[in-house]
Amino acid sequence: MSSTDALLQRLFRLHRFGIRPGLERIEALLQALGNPHRRYPAVHVTGTNGKGSLCALLASALQAQGYRVGLYTSPHLCHFTERIRIAGTPIDEAALGAYLPFLLQMADRVGATFFEVTTALAFALFAEYGVEIAVVEVGMGGRYDATNVVSPLVAAITGIDYDHQQYLGASLQEIAWQKVGIVKAGCAAVIGERRPWLRELLCQWATQCGASAVVIPSTEPTLIAALPNLSQHLRLPSGAELTLPLAGAHQRWNVALALTVAELLAPHFPLSLRSLTEGFCAVRSWGGLRARIEPLRLDPPVILDVAHNPGGITALIDTLDEHGYSSTRWRLVFGAMADKDIPAMLTVLQPRVSTLMACAPATERAAPTGHLLQYAQHLGITQSTEFPTVAEAVRAAWNCAEPTLITGSFYVAGEALQTLQDACATA
Predict the structure, then answer these.
(1) What is the CA radius of gyration of the chain?
(2) 188-210 burial by CB neighbour count: b if 16+ within 10 A, else e?
(3) For 373-391, what is each residue's pLDDT tens digit?
(4) 3-state helix, strand, coil in the chain (%, to 5)
(5) Which residues pair with 243 in a beta bridge?
(6) 3-state secondary structure (DSSP) of residue 356
């Protein structure tokens, strides 16, 4: 075992602390490192669905303009280093050795969690490698998330849905209150929530936080063509056209949010129209954005998505309809975390499923496959099989050569990508 592997094993063992909202531990870690997060400006992004896509779009556009950008997202799909990208590239594993030994010692002292140590590591590496601006995705919620130590130029909220209710609250209002906590006095706020009553509440709270401006996107790109390869040809409000390698109306809204954030960044980090379009087109490579309604094969289609709550599943189905797959019946490779609303997710999927291939990703949080079969039977999904691993389910579906949809969890998507490495390399 290499020294890096040993460090990562120690880091992953911090999962035993679970999720512990609060800023005191991350502040202790960062203070011990000399507060590296104060050495560069940031864009801070939260929301229930879409925050990773928005972060990747922004980071890619900033990179296309020539800025040195740090991008911090979670969770990773295949490799830990995907969480921390500098200038469009995941950090080298060798970079971990500079800070992880010290951070792991500190973690033992203050009881820090996996995500807190990872966040401190990202902020330290951004300072070490001289990023000009950081794009930071919230891990969960916002107000008490470990990333909420940054003082952003712009804070963006993509939208609100039910998720992590045991930590964020049982109502949309409570969840929204947690997320608006990333807005700081003097920063601009972009509100991407579409429901008027909740959007108005978020705008009111952001103003009370002292935001310098509270902005709602006024227009979004026009769809010219939704293509079967799950890309879409768009016309931006400026009149420029591009082919976005991301599918769905929700991604058009994320582009609208990215354009709005770019306008607010302009006094500090101007972005040309050319850089915006070039960055958006390179979002999968520069932003590392994989498994967002991504085709791994087109004939027959094998589509991979990280949707892990009812809102994400609904967006997935709506997008498949828009791109010409409304009559397709899918082999569904599905696994989910036990704390998710699995019945609601499967209810949305049920009309499109020919066969359920239930599996459990390699985490103690995974729902047992037997539970998935019980939910499926109750919903009228009569053809179902359980597999002990994601890899076995994915290989079986791939070899069946039938339309296949793989979704339910970031963990499922990551294990599927690792299983289908050859397909992923050519996607």
Answers:
(1) 21
(2) bbbbbbeeeebbebbbebbeebe
(3) 999 999 999 899 999 999 9
(4) 45, 15, 35
(5) 233
(6) strand
Helix or strand run (H / E) with residue 154: strand 154-157
pLDDT in tens, 129-183: 999 999 999 998 889 999 999 999 999 999 887 766 666 777 898 999 989 999 9
Task: Outline where DSSP puts E strands in 56-141.
Answer: 69-72, 84-86, 89-90, 133-137
In the structure encoding, which two tokens stand for residue 321, read together?
A: 């309809």
Residue of 356, 48, 268, 366 lying closest to 178 (CA atoms): 48
What dihedral angle (degrees, nearest 10) is formed by the CA atoms of 40, 46, 52, 56? -40
Q: What is the pLDDT of residues 88-109, one digit of tens each?
A: 999 998 889 889 999 999 999 9
pTM over 0.90: yes
Q: Which amino acid is at 243?
A: T
Contact 359, 334 (CB under 8 A): yes
Per the prediction, the chain carries an average pLDDT of 93
Tokens found for residue 191: 């509100």
| Ranges assigned E (strand) in 5-72 | 42-46, 69-72
| Residue 280 contacts residue 242 (beta carbons within 8 Å) | yes
Q: How many CB atoms lie within 10 A of CB 152?
A: 24
Residue for token digits 């712009």? 154
Strands 330-334 and 404-407: parallel
Q: What domains can you pick out in the chain, each with its CATH number?
A: 3-286 (3.40.1190.10), 294-426 (3.90.190.20)
- The amino acid sitting at 369 is T
